[in-house]
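User: Show me an example of a complex going from sequences to structure tokens.

Assistant: Sure. Here are the input components:
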Amino acid sequence: MKTKIFPIFLIFTFSIIFFVFYKGLQNTNVYTPTIKSEIKIPNFGAKEFFSKDKINSDQIFIGSDYYLLNIWASWCVPCKEEHKYLMDLSKKENIKIIGQNYKDNFENAKNFLINLDNPYDLIFFDNDGTIAIEWGAYGVPETFLIQNNKIIKKIIGPLNEKLLFEIKELTQ
Amino acid sequence: MNILKFLVSVIFLIYCFSSDLKAKNLEIEITKNLRCLICQGQSVYDSDSEFANSLKILVKKKLNEGLDEKQIYAYLKNKYGDWILYDPGFSKNTYFLWLLPILMFIFGGAIILRKVILKKKKL
């Protein structure tokens, strides 16, 4: 009897291990931070894009129903792809689009906006990328939908047709 | 009097230098324990990606603001989750991670002990 328990136990253990590892094979090995919804927006100070005046975040996110914070740069190729969706959203009345210019050169950024049009209601600089970390972002482009000073949706990577629809649904 | 002045300035310089070195060391220590999210598998200290460079600046800023190591970890954990730390703290999500080796050790020890006792009984 005793000799039988051991092989059964062994087979059982190995099948569990096999199952766990086999399942693990299908998982992606690239980590993306889990999207914690309904977190408060950070508090930070920044420089305005055109006037170069100092502004604080609580002066930016006040007065409108919804805000869309978009982290962008003129050197970022996916930012060009998503630009048309931002232009589309800028036509909406109840949503203000705020641009965060990430590690960019002012002239290049200005040309980017001249060539492709400017969807932003306000832009501020993030020259060393530390404000992006305040948001919990780690690359460009990233977009945050904000309502009542809370992040209600976070989008990593460029916007697309489907995400545009989702944003429109959320801001009905 | 001049010698005294000289000595004082030398001591002051050494003091400044050593405290600066200390801050630098802590900064390195912290960034070595942070995982880069862009080039995953590298620490922030080793990486030269945009994200890692910003994070290095931020760690320096936070240290200057007077935050200690633990506060910086807590701050970043809040933003990016446990994953950003190479040495995650003991929490609900990491019980299994931390306790598994101990459990395995106890379990293995129990098996060995049993074998030894059985052998002794046979003898």
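The lines above are the inputs; the final block is the predicted structure for all two components together. The first helix of chain A runs from residue 2 to 26.
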